[in-house]
Structures are given as structure tokens and as C-alpha cells.
Write a structure and sequence with these properties.
This protein has about 575 residues and is of the alpha+beta class. The protein is about 30% helix and about 25% strand. Helix 4 runs antiparallel to helix 5 and helix 12 runs antiparallel to helix 13. The chain is globular. The structure holds adenosine-5'-diphosphate. Adenosine-5'-diphosphate binds next to strand 9, strand 13 and strand 14.
């Protein structure tokens, strides 16, 4: 077994991996950026190494610096967590070249699954069903006609729901191809796109797979992740209410086949899309631990992180397929600093006070403690809340209780929104598809009072006089049957006013980096035209023209970091 492991990540997943290390009595080394000097993962590690400035590219994506830190501290292995460098084949290769173990699959497997188009070809060859599609090289229009509308334009190098466009008619195709290509180029440095049949009323159902270095491959059952916003998961559960024993078994076999096709070692996830007629199609394979791994841990009783470390150290899987079973029901909610009533725009700020739910069958994987900050530099996920129940009804009731017990003040969060989703009859009936949030929650608004704390920070002291100290008013903030009061509605109001779709000045709705400038001073622009792209907390925000106009002044440049409310463009 390893004598020391470096964790090349931050936030809740770094803390999660450290917990496994501690239980295995393996000292862990944290790495951190200048923005994370006081972060929870740094406080919890045995040792911590500063690796660079706040922007991820200078720290958590700086593979050379991370490998140096591992060598300096005498580590034998690096666990990449998820996100950042976890699916970067070059990083895995460099880790190995430095004489260290990469806790994950082989470089070849990461590479093979890294490009969706390549992965799809591999799967077709292995007999795993894929969505009818077209990989390019000829006439996209003709291909789309043949596939039949609606089609989905997807980025070959895609991830995180980026570079995806639904196209319902020929007239929309060329623009969607160009936009998706641009977004993909920005996000992944690779603008290649391909087409897939867009499956309506679909379910996202994925299988956890695991392989060891001796060629054993098993699956650990499914996770249903159909509750999504912007093609990104927010609530996951297992077992899926959509699968019967037969379909589960066929999909499990296909997942194992998919993993076998690339000689898969360690933890991976094979994602499928399932249509309303119960046909399933391979979407992609994620060659890492998944955010939603706790629900698999709940129902199988396994610790996936410990298993990852054991397998990476050369131990065989301690069980076979027939030994694994699903028991009970588990649900996970991703708690984000974001505003669901405002396009799920990420929010920043300091978590003044966090009080997490606990009790039977409740687990919180958190990377943030009271007083910690959610900054513009990283993903706005605060924590993962997962619950276990004897059956689905029990698990839903427990999640409702846990969400009601969760208190986060000082930040705008999605807690109230999650509670509303959990209570929705379509979700309760187990009938939600990937379009569920858009269909039923487009007009969702908070019913909670504004946030005096964040309003105060913005200098709007009148709101404070109106509302008073929230902690002195325990009753008023527990509306909607005990739903947790999420502070930050005041911040939303301010954001809305900072959005600046005013007459002449367009301002940044949130702090971030200008990733693209698509106009120049003097240009004539039309209503709806994209002028700038802004990126913050892994989200891309379009600044588009509110009306036909001329660009009078361009007040920012590509690559520039801008403040919330800063004027970026003046129109005339
Ligand atoms: P990413 O790697 O960016 O997360 P995925 O291929 O995993 O992209 O897809 C993300 C989500 O987009 C899926 O969970 C599903 O909701 C939707 N999606 C992807 N492909 C299709 C498709 N062919 N038809 C319908 N929905 C799709």
C-alpha cells in the first residue's frame, strides 16, 4: 500500500479523498492555490503545498507544479479527484513518467474515451448501442435530414454540457454548428463538433464500473441523473425508477462490455441515454470518480475511493459481480452557490454560517465551512447532500427533511429550489426526464424574504431595517414547511440591476474573465447578437445586444478579469 498520497484537487472531493486516506492510515498531501490558503481541504490534510495563483490554470491545472509537490513531499501516488486534471491523459502519463502512481485508469483508456467521437467509434466496434449520428467530414445538412430532426450538435471534446445545441429545423443548423464550434473552441481548445439524434423525453442513466489490474471488470449498478439544468446534473438517485430487472441487467452488461473494450482499470462511469421506449444508447464514458458516487456507496455498501486506492496499489477487486447487490434507495442533491430564479447564475460570497443536516441516513460531503468563501475562480458547488432510505418514498422523505435542516447564510444557494424539485409530483412519481427542470421550473421564483446580510454588503442598508437580523427571527426564514432559508435574494436583485441591459451601457452580471470579444468600436450590431463572452466559475455568459445599435465604446479586452457591474460595452 502507498505510504503517502497527494490529492490534486480542492473543495469537497479533496476532503472526501482525505477521509478515505485517514481511514486507511495513509498520510495525505493537499495542494492549494493562493485563493485557498484557508480552505477546508488544506486544514484537513497532513501536509499542504502552495502550487500557484488563484486561476486554476496557474495552480490546480499546473501539472508540472503538482508533480513536483508530490515528489518533494515523498508521495507515491496522486489522486486527481474529478474535474481539473482528472481526465487529462498527458497528466496521467507525466505522473507515471515521474515514477508515481496515477489513481485512475491507464493513459490509453483516458485517451480513448477523451474524444466523444473516438469513444463512439470504439463502442460501435464493441457492439454497444450508440445514438444515430454523424461525425462530420461531409454535408452536415444532408446528414441531419437523414438522421431526422431534432438533432443535437455536440462538441467532440465536450464536457460539462458545453458546446451543445438542439436543432429543430434545417434553417437553424448552420448557426448552431458555428455557435457550438465556437463554444467548444473556447472551452476545450478544440472546435470539432458532431451530430446526434436528439432523443426527446429521455432519461440519463449511467453505470458505475470498476476494473482491477488483473482484468476483472464489474459494474456497481446504475445512477439515474435525469434532473439536470443546462445539461448538467443536480439530483441523482439509485436505483432508477425507470429500470426493471431485465433492462438493468442488459445495461449493466453493456457497461461492462464498454469498459472491457478499453481494458478498463479503476473507477469509471458509462453514461447512457434511454428513450421512452426503453432503448438505451451509449453517450460517453467518464474515466474518473463521479460527483454522484456517494449514492452508489449508500446502496452497495462499498467505499469507492478506498477501492480506487487499493486497485491502484495493485490489489484485486475483493468481490465478483454476483457478490454485489443494491439495497435500499439513495438520492443526492448538489448544493450550489447559484440563483435558480436567475438562470442558475453562479453566486459568489462568504458563507457566514453553515449548519449541515445530520441524523440517520444523511451524509454531507462539503468543501466549505462557516466563514469560507465561494470565489469566482472555481466551480460553485458547495456540497453534496445524499440520503439513504429503505425505499424511494423513504429516501424522498429523508431528503425533504435534510434540505429543511440545511442552513447556509450569506450566499445565494439552490437549497430552496432543490426542495421544490424533490416535492414536485412528477419527480415523486419517478417520471422526470432530462427536460423536467426546463419544463416545470422555468418560471420558478423563491418565496423567501430578501437576504439582509448580502444586501448589507452591497450597501443597501434600508433592507436591513426592513428585515432585521435573520438569526433573531428563526420563524420567518423557515417558510414553505421548513425549507431552509437561503440568504442572498438581495444579491439577486442587485445582480439583476448590474446585468445592465439598459439603454447604452452593458455591464458584467458577475465577476469573471472576458473570453471572447466579438465586436470592435464602430460596429453595427443587431438585437440579440452576441458581443462578448464572459466566463466565471466554469460557466459561460453571453453578453448580447439588447437592441439594434452601434458600438460606441469597447471597455474591456480579451482575457481581462472584470468586476460585477463593470461596464463592458457602450452602445449608441
Ligand atoms: P457532457 O460530456 O458535456 O456532460 P453528455 O454527452 O454527457 O455531455 O450529455 C449531457 C446531457 O445532455 C445528457 O445527460 C442529456 O441530458 C443530454 N444529451 C446528450 N446527448 C443527448 C441526445 N443524443 N439526446 C438527448 N439528450 C442528450
Amino acid at each position: 500500500m502507498f505510504s503517502k498520497i497527494l490529492i490534486a484537487n480542492r473543495g469537497e472531493i479533496a476532503v472526501r479523498i482525505m477521509r478515505a486516506c485517514r481511514e486507511m492510515e495513509i498520510p495525505s498531501v493537499a495542494v492549494y492555490s493562493e485563493a485557498d490558503t484557508h480552505a477546508l481541504h488544506v486544514r484537513q490534510a497532513n501536509e499542504a503545498v502552495l502550487i500557484g495563483a488563484a486561476p486554476a490554470r496557474e495552480s490546480y491545472l499546473n501539472s508540472t507544479r503538482i508533480i513536483e509537490a508530490a515528489l518533494q513531499t515523498g508521495c507515491q501516488a496522486i489522486h486527481p479527484g474529478y474535474g481539473f486534471l482528472s481526465e487529462n491523459a498527458d497528466f496521467a502519463a507525466d505522473v507515471q513518467a515521474a515514477g508515481l502512481t496515477f489513481v485512475g485508469p491507464s493513459v490509453e483508456a483516458i485517451r480513448a474515451m477523451g474524444l466523444k467521437t473516438e469513444a463512439l467509434r470504439l463502442m460501435q466496434a464493441a457492439g454497444v448501442p450508440t445514438v444515430p449520428g454523424y461525425q462530420g467530414g461531409g454535408d452536415y445538412g444532408q446528414a441531419a435530414e437523414q438522421i431526422g430532426y431534432p438533432v443535437l450538435v455536440k462538441a467532440a471534446a465536450g464536457g460539462g454540457g458545453k458546446g451543445m445545441r438542439i436543432v429543430r429545423a434545417t434553417s437553424e443548423l448552420s448557426e448552431a454548428l458555428a455557435a457550438a464550434g465556437r463554444e467548444a473552441q473556447n472551452a476545450f481548445g478544440d472546435g470539432r463538433v458532431f451530430l446526434e439524434k436528439y432523443i426527446e423525453s429521455a432519461r440519463h442513466i449511467e453505470f458505475q464500473v470498476f476494473g482491477d489490474q488483473r482484468g476483472n471488470i464489474v459494474h456497481l449498478f446504475e445512477r439515474e441523473c435525469s434532473i439536470q439544468r443546462r445539461h448538467q446534473k443536480i439530483i441523482e438517485e439509485t436505483p432508477s425508477p425507470f429500470l426493471d430487472t431485465d433492462l438493468r441487467s442488459r445495461m449493466g452488461d453493456a457497461a461492462t462490455e464498454a469498459a472491457r473494450a478499453v481494458g478498463y482499470v479503476n473507477a469509471g462511469t458509462v453514461e447512457f441515454i434511454v428513450d421512452k421506449d426503453f432503448n438505451f444508447y451509449f453517450l460517453e464514458m467518464n474515466t474518473r470518480l463521479q460527483v454522484e458516487h456517494p449514492i452508489t456507496e449508500w446502496v452497495t455498501g462499498l467505499d469507492l475511493v478506498k477501492l480506487q486506492i487499493r486497485v491502484a496499489a495493485g490489489e484485486p477487486l475483493p468481490f465478483q459481480q454476483a457478490d454485489v447487490s443494491q439495497r435500499g434507495h439513495a438520492i443526492e442533491c448538489r448544493v450550489y452557490a447559484e440563483d435558480p430564479a436567475n438562470g442558475f447564475l453562479p453566486a459568489i460570497g462568504t458563507a457566514e454560517r453553515i449548519s449541515e443536516p445530520s441524523g440517520p441516513g444523511v451524509r454531507v460531503d462539503s468543501g466549505l465551512a462557516s466563514g469560507d468563501e465561494v470565489s469566482i475562480h472555481y466551480d460553485p458547488m458547495i456540497a453534496k447532500l445524499s440520503v439513504y432510505g429503505t425505499d424511494r418514498v423513504d429516501a424522498i422523505a429523508r431528503m425533504r427533511r435534510a434540505l429543511a435542516d440545511y442552513v447556509i447564510s450569506g450566499l445565494t444557494t439552490n437549497l430552496e429550489f432543490l426542495a421544490a424539485v424533490i416535492d414536485h409530483p412528477v419527480f415523486v412519481r419517478g417520471e422526470a426526464t432530462t427536460g423536467f427542470i426546463e419544463e416545470y421550473f422555468g418560471e420558478w421564483r423563491s418565496t423567501l424574504p430578501p437576504n439582509p446580510l448580502s444586501v448589507y454588503r452591497e450597501g443597501e442598508s434600508n433592507a436591513i431595517q426592513n428585515v432585521g437580523d435573520p438569526w433573531a427571527r428563526a420563524d420567518g426564514f423557515r417558510m414553505g414547511g421548513g425549507v431552509t432559508y437561503t440568504v442572498g435574494k438581495g444579491a439577486k436583485a442587485i445582480t439583476k440591476r448590474n446585468i445592465g441591459q439598459g439603454e447604452n451601457a452593458l455591464a458584467a452580471a458577475m465577476p469573471g474573465q472576458v473570453t471572447r470579444v466579438l465586436i470592435a468600436e464602430g460596429d453595427t450590431v443587431t438585437r440579440g447578437q452576441t458581443l462578448l463572452l464572459l466566463e466565471a466559475m466554469k460557466m459561460e455568459i453571453k453578453i448580447s445586444a439588447p437592441r439594434d445599435a452601434v458600438v460606441r465604446k469597447l471597455l474591456c479586452a480579451q482575457g481581462q478579469i472584470v468586476e460585477r457591474g463593470q461596464t463592458l460595452v457602450e452602445l449608441a
